Amino acid sequence: MTSQSPAPAPAKTYHVKSFGCQMNVYDSERMGDLLSAEGLTSVATPEAADVVVLNTCHIREKAAEKLYSDIGRLRQPRADGRRPTIVAAGCVAQAEGAEIAARAPAVDVIVGPLAYHRLPELLKQAQTGRAVDIDMPLVPKFDSLPQRRIAQASAFLTVQEGCDKFCTFCVVPYTRGPETSRPAADLIGEAQALVACGVKEITLLGQNVNAYAGGLSLAGLIRALADIDGLERIRYTTSHPRDMHDDLIAAHVEVAKLMPYLHLPVQSGSSRMLKAMNRAHTRESYLATLERLRAARPDIALSGDFIVGFPGETEADFEDTLSIVRQVQYAAAYSFKYSIRPGTPAATMADQVPEAVKDERLARLQAAIAEASLAFNRSTIGRRCTVLLERPGRKPGQLIGKTPWLQSAVVSIPGAAIGDLVAVNIVGAGPNSVEAVPVSPPARESAAA
Ligand code: 5AD
Ligand code: SF4
Fold first, then answer.
1. Closest protein CA for atom 2 of ligand 1
2. Which of 32, 101, 175, 406 could form a disulfide with 94 if both were Cys (CB 3.0 to 4.6 A apart)?
3. Which of 19, 175, 305, 362 maximizes ligand 1 atoms within 8 Å of its Cβ, making it the mutation to test the pocket?
């Protein structure tokens, strides 16, 4: 171990802290499964844990800084003079393993997102000195993970990892490696195991989930999963506009369990910026894809990601982004200030946009997105649908769940419990949620909207 910091406590409990995307949430759960299989018990806070896994995100600069501030806190001796064993996992570990080793001597294990199946072994190794694995092995980690045990109604399932698209702003192709898909048979098995634990909704995850090619296409996989009795809802994220093929659009019409929601990042409304970003689509081709989708499934809810202040972005380019938000009427959208990522092509492009301009554009974009979300929520008032109840609401008797369009819905249904799929009418709408009342008499029904 290191000379500066106190010795780690014996490993009996663990806590996995997840930063960033849903794929990290999935990976965090799987690291938890590995540690549980080793006999460690999960605890709710890092302060109470003997082993703390920081599952990091590298997508923007701020995400990486959080790792170092957490390590700073965790390395302090506790009341018994010990500190936890600290594991730096995820994409910052992959991209900056050597820097972490130099800058944070208290870190005991450094493990990348493609090697975390080796976590138990690395923890053993760390008893005699820091253990590092940031390889991108050919043997997929998924083959050596234990059976999943999950107690939620809704679960993530990673079906595809990595990215071959090389958008000029993005680190993912470097941290998660090339696109790889898990075999469909493995995924069907994992989904069946989840459903046996009571899971009713599965969200299929991938950096480019609609590029899935594991023996079946994504549409084929969705159709196969829809045959699992007890699985009520299927979702998938994140999709690339370039891979939005007709068979997937057809699945949105034909597979009742596939929810009418699509996260399809556009990044910018300006074709000039999209070219500089190497997005392989234009504003026009993106809008044409949405038209095909809406023609097939008129009620589909759309969401997207946006970057403001990409190098060279002018006010006119930015106004194209505002106009696409108004034109598409997104149900939800995520917006980010461009963040320089060392090693990516955009990092060294001329005409970097000043921070103050990025701030101002982000505020205007977020106002336009909020307006679109509210309009979308209002447009659903009067619809009858199902809600999958996920957590208690603020007031007694209230429960919060998700509509087919991924809105948070607040409902009060006597006798209903978390995990139930209930039939409701939407009666009110705010910017971030809708209000729903039970269809009387209260009844459970299939997930079809
Ligand atoms: N700066 C800002 N946002 C970024 N994203 C990816 N890379 C960057 C970056 N360098 C955003 C994109 C992507 C989402 C996951 O994060 O919008 O779709
Ligand atoms: Fe990053 Fe672009 Fe790949 Fe998405 S498609 S993960 S933004 S490189």
1. 338
2. 175
3. 305
